Amino acid sequence: MNVTLGSALLDMYAKCGDINMAMEVFWGMKEKNVYTWSAAIGGLAMNGYGDKCVELYGRMRHEDVMPNEVTFTSVLKGCSVAGLVEEGCKLFESMINGFGMEPQLEHYGCMVDLYGLSGCLEEALNFIYSMPIQPHAGAWGALLKACKLYNNVEIAEQVCFM
């Protein structure tokens, strides 16, 4: 199995919810690239294994595989799933300062989701205000979802009048 086929199979199994088979494909591959690692990290995050997602990212870095923007989106989602606010903040900062990447809309949305789902609604709102780009529907939606989850009508009303 080559790296393209393996990555596609891994992604398919993960998206179908069979993370065990996805990871079996991943670990069985002789050759892996950043896309393979990113698919595995994203699959773990998508299926609720945030801790394992962050752990796999660490292993990827130990293997000297350079992350890309998709990798960071996936690992930030994993942090959100697992409630790993501090780890997510460190990863977001490393994306900018360590790898010189410019965060995209998805990355900002992941950070708002990370703060919001962890109950840090004020931090999520402050993060949106501090974004160097125009806040988008994904960021506002993540904050509103968190407001609903934590029954925070005050911040939800602020968001509605933005």
Task: Give a brief outline of the structure.
This protein is mainly α and 162 residues long.
Characterise the protein shown here.
There is one protein chain. The chain has helices at 3-15, 19-28, 34-46, 50-62, 69-82, 85-98, 105-117, 121-130, 137-149, 153-160. By secondary structure, it is mostly helical. It is elongated and about 55 Å long. The termini are far apart.
Helix-strand blueprint:
Elements: H1 3-15, H2 19-28, H3 34-46, H4 50-62, H5 69-82, H6 85-98, H7 105-117, H8 121-130, H9 137-149, H10 153-160
At the fourth level of CATH, the homologous superfamily of the largest domain is Tetratricopeptide repeat domain
| Main sheet characteristics | none
The tally of domains stands at: 2
CATH topology of the largest domain, by name, is Serine Threonine Protein Phosphatase 5, Tetratricopeptide repeat
The structural class is mainly alpha
Element-by-element helix/strand order: HHHHHHHHHH
**Strand share of the residues?**
under 5%
Low confidence ranges: none
For this entry, give a set of tags.
mainly alpha; 162 residues; Serine Threonine Protein Phosphatase 5, Tetratricopeptide repeat; 2 domains; single chain
